Amino acid sequence: MEKVVLGLTCVEMEPTAPRGTAASSAHGPITASLEDLELWTQFYQAGTEMVITKSGRRMFPQCKIRLSGLVPYLKYVVLADFVPMDNFRYKWTKDQWEVAGKAEPQLPGRSYIHPDSPAYGSHWMKEPVSFHKMKLTNNTLDQLGHIILHSMHRYQPRFLVVQADDLFNICWRGFQAFSFPQTVFISVTAYQNEQITKLKIDNNPFAKGFREQGKQQRRTHRLSPSQGQKRKRREELASSPKAEKSGLTKDETVQVQDSTSPGPVRYAPFWGPLGLSRASVPANQREEPTRETAAPTPGSYPAYRFQDYGPSIWEAAPGSDGRPRPVLPGAEPEVRQLPGDCAPPDKAGPHGPLYPPYSPEAGSGQWLVPAPAHGQPRPFPSLDGAAHGGTPDWGQYPLFSYACW
DNA sequence: TCATCTAGCACCTTTGAAATGT
DNA sequence: AACATTTCAAAGGTGCTAGATG
């Protein structure tokens, strides 16, 4: 394919008016929709746990998004990173998540650059963009380029799209950032919530052996009483016809699942009976309780543009009574224009780190972005403030600190 | 004592090269 | 000879478990 536009490597985007751009105006705004929405919603309802290991663990459900609105003949870089949702560490007590204390010191964030990057808009729009090779680790000394997270902390993946002809020439402004409320998870080194375990076993092909009766009997390990009970319950659930129906086809799209939605659905809040203990969360961190949320609307979800960098994704959609309410599964994704300051970090090859790998010497410097000078636009939209309690400023989270594949 | 983490296990799917067929 | 299809082994992903760690 011929490169139509040469030298155009930066789509200038006005920080305060993230609409009109040379790239997007002709083809409409860039939009993203989350694939496997129903699966994500199931996990969200139970309070998603994502296993992280020292050697790196893939995510399940997989992060897969469908992009549209890109200019087919322009090249884009697509990446993902992870944003801490708050400043707390959690623990699993009495079948629910509770705040266990202050969060660990933040690690230098890493971004996973999709291996296809950079690619033409037509390529990204051709099929859903899958981040299935992305791995999460709790190893702070990881040299493999995996995403480093703290266990027992709450994160949300964020997807970024930027127009760039190559990885050396990314303009550090004009990022389009997408995040989806139902993808919030707590990172764990071992499953705590058996409902999540069951969901994973039921839906993950690699765990097929665990859901097939009889196979487990080959194991010679002796089970502790509580663990034995867990397994028994799981076997019972797995053998029920209902359990078999819960699986989704691999590439099920939003449209498929929505077409059969019977109507309004109630979603349990993240700390509902199966999720986080609401009482354990400090008052200024709580979401509004979910009263009723409309079922997901059919089709892809249009981009939700934040003109004013609203206070929190959890309160982005005001209710009919004017009160803020959490954005729940089926709601529109959060889309942010990340203006940046066009000051690129150290350049590095497409297969090398853009920042040095984490080392104790590096400290938390990457995370402590000094406040912008008076009158200067903030580098990234702020999520702090009373509405979101201790949620850190997004500006603290590097967009592009490490390339992983 | 307890919560959390780790390594190793058995079992599974995925992947890609080699073999075979058309 | 070129291409398509099938086969199969290796690689890698999964949750489970006991023991280690702090």
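Chain A has a mean pLDDT of 59.
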